[in-house]
Specification:
Layout lengths: L5 H4 L6 H11 L6 H11 L1 H4 L18 H12 L6 H11 L4 H12 L11 H13 L10 H4 L17 H13 L6 H9 L2 H12 L2
Helix pairs in contact: 3-7, 5-6, 5-7, 8-12, 10-11, 10-12
Bound molecules: heme C (2 copies).
């Protein structure tokens, strides 16, 4: 029978337990979704919800997000390339604790979780948003969102899933692309600059309900 770690049997050294767990949680781990699941419930669920299915518009949903996008964002927070205020306040510190193997396991885990959708009570706004999503706003030079984010807003590789995401979160991101504080995605910043507030609201309402 293998020897148990000392802290396991000794009640006196219980103060060492949380530290030991933290070290185990953040240590180099094999890139497995299983490891990602364990880490996500310890480190992420308090804000992003169980399995990344966030219930609060303050926190983006991560369930069903693309693996490449999740990887890029976690590295972007860690390397201070994604710099809007909420990213600095909420994600910089925790991302600084994640090595590449941990990032890989978290990205794999969340990308495998079933996506969920929300709702909207304003059918006219949703219809207007769907039109913008699928056709863009040619007068203003806004391209169809679907051309990058997928016909259903499901995302693809570096292009994030938008379907089902909280409308308030989507609106905040459009704003930070516009004000330049989320500056590491020039393509999306250019698109955001063409979007008026009413159009942004409509497309966000549409996406939340998908
Ligand atoms: C204290 C709350 C909190 C915790 C804990 C937390 N996050 Fe976040 N996370 C946020 C907030 C708030 C944002 C939105 C930041 C913004 O608006 O720029 C965010 C954004 C993200 C994003 C970007 C999502 C997108 O659609 O662009 C990813 C990926 C992410 N978090 C992953 C994680 C992972 C993985 C963990 C656990 C290791 C974690 N977060 C822990 C609050 C938290
Ligand atoms: C030319 C390709 C392209 C088009 C067209 C495009 N986007 Fe994007 N979008 C991107 C990329 C790339 C990202 C990821 C940026 C990053 O890595 O930080 C993104 C990110 C986003 C995000 C942030 C998502 C998150 O989880 O934080 C939102 C919101 C968004 N796009 C909305 C839209 C809307 C609305 C439209 C249509 C009006 C649109 N995009 C059209 C390329 C595009």
């Amino acid at each position: 029978m293998p020897l148990l770690p000392r802290w396991f049997t000794s009640p006196i050294s219980s103060a060492a337990v949380p530290l030991t767990i933290a070290v185990l949680a953040l240590g180099a781990a094999p890139a497995q979704a299983q490891e990602g699941e364990r880490l996500s419930s310890q480190l992420c669920a308090a804000c992003h919800g169980v399995h990344g299915d966030s219930k609060s518009p303050m926190f983006p949903k991560l369930n069903g997000q693309t693996q490449d996008y999740l990887t890029a964002q976690l590295k972007g927070f860690r390397e201070h390339q994604r710099g809007e205020t909420d990213a600095r306040s909420y994600m910089w510190a925790i991302a600084s604790q994640l090595d590449d193997a941990t990032v890989a396991s978290l990205a794999e885990y969340f990308s495998q979780q079933k996506p969920t959708s929300g709702s909207s009570s304003d059918a006219a706004l949703v219809a207007q948003g769907q039109k913008i999503f699928e056709e863009g706003v040619p007068d203003k030079g806004t391209p169809a969102c679907a051309s990058c984010h997928g016909a259903q807003g499901q995302g693809n590789g570096q292009f994030p899933r938008l379907a089902g995401q909280h409308a308030d979160y989507l609106m905040r991101q459009i704003r930070v692309f516009q004000n330049g504080s989320r500056a590491n995605a020039p393509v999306m910043s250019a698109v955001a600059h063409t979007l008026g507030n009413e159009d942004a609201k409509a497309v966000a309402a549409f996406l939340q309900s998908r």
